[in-house]
Amino acid sequence: MISLTNIEKVYRTDTIETLALNSISLDIAKGEFLSIMGPSGCGKSTLLNIMGLLDTPTRGQVQIADQPTQHLNDKQLAHFRNKKIGFIFQSYHLINDLKVLDNVELPLLYRHSAAKERRLLATAALEKVGLSNRIRHFPTQLSGGQKQRVAIARAIVGQPEIILADEPTGNLDSAMGHEIMDILLTLNKTEGTTIIMVTHDEIMARKTHRLVRLFDGTQVQ
Amino acid sequence: MFKHLFILIWNKKKQNFLLLTEVLISFIVLFAVFTLLVFYYRNYKTPRGFDYQQVWVATYTNNFNIHDSDSLHQFYESLRNAIQAMPQVVSVAFVSSNTPYSNNMQMNGLQYQKRQLRSVNSYIVENSYLPTLQLQLLEGQWFSPADAAARKTPLVIDQTLREELFGNGPAIGQLVGDDNQQQIIGVVQDPKFNNDYSLTGKAMFSAPDTGSIRSLSRALVRVAPGADAALEGRLYKLMANTMKNANIQIEHLDEKRNSANNFALLPMIILAVVCGFLIINVALGLFGVLWYNINKRRGEIGLRRAVGATGSSIAWQLVAESLLLATLALLVGVFFAIQFPLLHVFDLAATTYLWGLLFAIVFIYVLVLVCSLYPGKQAAAIYPAVALHED
Ligand SMILES: Nc1ncnc2c1ncn2[C@@H]1O[C@H](COP(=O)(O)OP(=O)(O)OP(=O)(O)O)[C@@H](O)[C@H]1O
Ligand SMILES: [Mg+2]
Question: How many A from CA of A219 to the centre of ligand 2?
């Protein structure tokens, strides 16, 4: 599903040059649930952003669904992200001025789906994460776990083949964290969605198919 | 997408309130200024109705010791003939003090059938007034010596008064005034006597009679091109000799017109300067608020990029949001503005208001567009990976 070859990422500022990723090669199969672990600052988010086409590697190739991505323009990249990838973040990134339902509809808006269809799909996605009774709430009226479930609903509403989750349970207590983890596991099992998850939690990581460890931008396991 | 933006703006109505008020107030001010400018411009474009060039106005104090009006008539007749006989004088007319660009006004009422019209400019003029100022006769005729035999007092009116009195009906021959003592004999084009930017309005002209001959206090003198200070000196001497103790002052209408125009333009210039500062202020405010909003919304922008927005669609969204906000403010503003023509608050044509409205709307949209283009462009350049990383 995702194939990274010799990925290198260098951040340059005026004074320093950071080698955030150092020749990472990784093949992730369709339907795989992969977790990435490593100490803070080792390049996990950077790697995820590159897989999600939010960032470009300094060197190396990214193939997603057998398609090389380095020649895609801004519009094609946006379209690609919209169709193929769902994102989940540690800090949820919900738009506080939009109700839950409108937040979940967001990816469909950029797909120019009809209003009726958007409503239908968003409601179904919220049902899957067990939040059908909160669709008219604003994000500020929800708990952390509920917010993350809204974020998951938003990630799955467009039925992407890949979900990229950057510490999805990082801000949650362990009960909430397991709840979120169960939703992701179910999603992986029933829909066959490929999931790549960054986590600091060994217990969560052990529930996934495969674990990749990074250290200082290099893959160590 | 439109509905989405509307929901977004609606849910943020508290934060947007200030911006809305700012746009609303600037719209109202712009509406007033543009309406005024359109009003001035339309007046400026209206034909002047007379010719001010090569006309001098001699002002004199008319407290001479001639008591019966027949002698006064003779006095004026001989003085007129003497001035007329001077080389380079084309024509001369004695008139009441409300000469062009003089700031003097004489308003009278005028009765027509059961109606009493107020504020009609009333000019006492000799027959030679028409050729001297070259007023444009539209209907009927001007005063002539034959009027002396007329049973009713002849009256010439301007186009505005004509329309007010008779609409599209016939004007010539109509009887007006108390006991129908006056008869309309002619209609002239509206003269713009105050300045080039305002209209004089209703006006009527009558020849001096035994009473009104005493209100003559100016001589309008049309001179040939090339008339110079020497002529002015001789004219002064002639009048001073004839009028004995009178104070005499000779001015040129073209100079008086210039100062009248400048005086009329002054408030407009002040208004434009004040308005200019206001607009700069509003523009900076708008720009600042939009800029601030974009920095506050970096997370949202990053997320939108992640779920499928292109850089340009982010820019488009922010510009569209501003324009939508402006539209909301304009809806309220137009509601207030439209009351002016509906309620006839001022005596302006409805189309003048509508042009003012149109200009103000276009100006607001352009202002908002210009102020949101750059912040929008900056938003489009936000790097999603970085923006999503921040909080
Ligand atoms: N935009 C950037 N500019 C410069 N350096 C950056 C940028 N983003 C990340 N880095 C650097 O790259 C390295 C990897 O960062 P990254 O965010 O991928 O770490 P991480 O593994 O996700 O850490 P954490 O567990 O704390 O989230 C860090 O040293 C970081 O300082
Ligand atoms: Mg990270």
Answer: 16
- Nearest ligand 1 atom to the CA of A90 is 27
Q: Is the CB of A48 under 6 A from ligand 1?
A: no
**Distance (Å, rounded) from C-alpha A88 to C-alpha B388?**
11
Chain centroid to CA B37: 8
Domain range annotation of chain B: 2-46+259-390, 62-246
Q: Chain B: give the shortest CA distance to residue A32, in Å.
A: 22
A2-219, CATH topology level: Rossmann fold (3.40.50)
A47 with A7: CB under 8 angstroms?
yes
The distance from CA B66 to its chain's CA centroid, rounded to whole angstroms, is 42
ipTM, two decimals: 0.94
CA neighbours closer than 13 Å in the CB half-sphere of residue B173: 2
Mutate to test the interface with B, among A50, A73, A83, A98 (most CBs of B within 10 A): A98
- Domain limits of chain A? 2-219
The reply to whether residue A81 touches residue B308, judged by beta carbons under 8 angstroms, is yes
A121 touches A157 (CB < 8 A):
yes
Q: Which of A157, A165, A213, A163 is nearest to A188 (CA)?
A: A163
Distance A46 CA to ligand 1 centre (A): 6
Give the closest-approach CA distance of B305 to chain A in angstroms.
7
Q: How far is B386 from chain A (nearest CA, A)?
A: 9
Ligand nearest to the CA of A41: 1
Encode pLDDT of B76-106 as tens digits: 999 999 999 999 999 999 999 999 999 899 9
Binary contact (A87, B307; C-beta < 8 A): yes
The arrangement of strands across the sheet holding A85-89 comes to A85-89, A162-166, A194-198, A33-37, A210-215, A218-219
Q: Could you give the count of Cα atoms lying within 13 Å of B299 in the half-sphere of its Cβ? A: 13
Nearest to B307 among A55, A102, A110 (CB): A110
Separation of alpha carbons B104 and B93, rounded Å = 18
Smallest CA-to-CA distance from A60 within A7, A9, A11 is with: A7
Contacts of B315 in chain A (CB under 8 A): none
Class of residue B149 by CB neighbours under 10 A (exposed 0-12, middle 13-18, buried 19+): exposed
Mean pLDDT in order along chain B per 10 residues (391 residues): 87 87 91 93 95 95 80 91 94 95 92 90 95 96 90 94 94 90 95 94 93 91 92 93 87 96 92 90 88 90 94 93 93 94 87 95 95 92 88 64
Say if ligand 1 is within 6 A of residue A20 CB: yes
Name the residue with tokens 């002396």.
Answer: B148
pTM value is 0.84
Among chain A residues, CA nearest to B5: A98
